[in-house]
Amino acid sequence: MNIAAVNAINIKWNFDPESISGYGVDRQTAYFRLKKLMSEFVWDLVCLEDNPYSFSEVQTLIEGITVGGHTLFDQKQILNQFASLKQLLDIIKNDSFVFEKETILSAHKLIAEEEALKWGCLRDGQVCISGTEHKPPQSDELPSLMSKGIREIAKIDNPFERALVYFCFGSINQFFYDGNKRTSRWVMNAILMSNGYNYLSVPCSKKSEFNTSMVRFYDSRDASEVIEFMRSCYVED
Q1: Is the model's pLDDT at 2 over the cut of 80?
Q2: In 3D, which of 184, 155, 220 has the Cα closest to residue 12?
Q3: What Rg, from alpha-carbon coordinates, does the chain have?
Q4: pLDDT per residue as tens digits for the range 55-75
Q5: Is 101 exposed, middle or buried (0-12, 13-18, 19+ CB in 10 A)?
Q6: What does the alpha-carbon distance between residue 177 and residue 43 come to, in Å, rounded to a whole number?
Q7: What tens digit of pLDDT does each residue of 194-209 get?
Q8: For 129-139, what is each residue's pLDDT tens digit?
Q9: From CA 194, how far away is CA 175, in angstroms rounded?
Q10: Of these four, 78, 113, 199, 223, which has the most CB atoms within 10 Å of its CB?
């Protein structure tokens, strides 16, 4: 059992490498699985954001056909997630993922375009997270905090653990005005897929469980429950 101390990136977690024994495919298989299930994964992403599109409507929209009866905001949110996953596909296909600030900002630019107050850059004001007492860091702390986090997380040997820890780190620090969990999941999946693991999606059916575990993490800074929950969402084939 790996127990990480709070003093590195100010969160703690437990991770059992045996819990992912046998996981992993290869980069090419992971690529084609994401490509094949793109509609499902986009729907999972926007469902967690309470977007009212149905799965079939998401399929229709990303095939290029406008769906009536929805706001332009909801439509744009779906198209943003689709664009971000296409970017992820390109990165995995070309084996070009680099775990650095510029990659994360590039992903956020697609994920939160016209949704967040600003996109593709770190926030320059304060934010809060409803339902929790956690207070994200001040904006002037974010550049050094992100650099430190990337540097420390890159030292984690197990890529599955590294990916899930980044998701928790990016989520709790709220580097952006909006789209923090989505961007953190994108980075998580870039780490996973570039190391031969499948894309990890949180199903819409587990939204309540996901939200509850995140609130407890924000208040305690103990990521163990979230990491175990995310691991339980991983599909091997």
Answers
A1: no
A2: 220
A3: 17
A4: 999 999 999 999 999 999 999
A5: middle
A6: 22
A7: 999 999 999 999 999 9
A8: 988 999 999 99
A9: 23
A10: 223
Instruction: Return d(Cα 130, Cα 109) in angstroms, integer.
Output: 24
What type of residue is 39?
S
Identify the burial level of 208 via C-beta atoms within 10 angstroms of its C-beta, where 0-12 means exposed, 13-18 middle and 19 or more buried.
exposed
| pTM score | 0.95
The string of DSSP letters for 16-29 reads: -GGGGTT----HHH
pLDDT recorded at residue 6? 44
Helix (H, G, I), strand (E, B) or coil at 144: helix
Token readout for 91 is 């990165």
What share of the chain in percent tops pLDDT 90? 91
Are the beta carbons of 174 and 127 closer than 8 angstroms? yes
Q: How far is CA 136 from CA 118, 210, 216, in A?
A: 17, 19, 15
The pair of three-digit structure tokens given for residue 153, joined into one six-digit string = 């997380």
In single-letter form, the type of residue at position 117 comes to: L
Tell me the two tokens of residue 19: 């819990």
Amino acid present at 55? F
Which residue segments constitute the domains of the chain, with CATH numbers given?
A: 7-63+70-233 (1.10.3290.10)
Nearest to 73 by CA among 108, 116, 107: 116
